[in-house]
Amino acid sequence: MNLRLLTVLPVYNEVEHVSGVIAGTLNYCREVLVVDDGSTDGTAGLLAARKDIRLLSHPQNRGYGAALRSAFDYAIAGGYEILVTIDCDGQHQPQLIPNLVELCVGENADMASGSRYLRQFPGDSQPPEARRRINRLLTEEINRRLGLHLTDAFCGFKAYRVGALTGLHLTEPGYAMPLELWVQAARLGWKIVELPVPLIYLDETRSFGGALDDAETRLAVYRQVLDRVGKQGGMVEGGGRKRQNCKMKNEN
Q1: Which of 32, 138, 174, 242 satisfies CB 3.0 to 4.6 Å to 63 for a cystine?
Q2: All structural domains of the chain with their residue ranges
Q3: What are phi and psi for residue 50, nearest 5 degrees?
Q4: What tens digit of pLDDT does each residue of 162-191 get?
Q5: What is the distance between the terminal CA atoms of the chain, rounded to a whole angstrom?
Q6: What is residue 90's three-state secondary structure?
Q7: Cα distance between residue 172 and residue 179, in whole Å
């Protein structure tokens, strides 16, 4: 498959995991971009010393959504065709990058999104109950409001058609950015497919930062964002301006 492919790792304070994830990713993608979102734990120095990656650095922590926006802009400006996003906390398996890319290209999709709940894999982790509940509730709300058929609204392991990214106007800087992305993807009529991926939690106590560490506060914030961006995007209950073709891929 002769495509201009870029894989991006948004990173904030991942000194324990970043080297291993980069090494694994480079086995499946020649061009890797790391967006360091103001790390203060030694990650920044480790990344600066590497010669086998491309590096964008935010001087201060701006948030997960802001890191992904920087990656999207980089991919668009660089003329890439497919962009893969993979988190740097060890939850995603780099060996599945070709599967995501193949699904995105083969289905002529705008996005191929990993799903940890589409099917079970041997050795799957038991998700923290609060995180699973919030994911389930928000996934159900997104499906109802936008006419989608998602099974996992918050998996960061995705492949995008870069041409489709030019239509996005994302403003959410933090962890609520995926909600804004789903609304805009629905408004733009994106074709979305899902690929089952293993459910892996290496650190169930990871912080979302500040008040978002409280599950009920986090759920309320996510719902507020979904309400706001839904109104901005002209979404209504029961479906968006265009119902989406969200297809599930049941085998790797």
Answers
A1: 174
A2: 5-240
A3: -85, 145
A4: 999 999 999 999 989 999 999 999 999 999
A5: 17
A6: coil
A7: 9
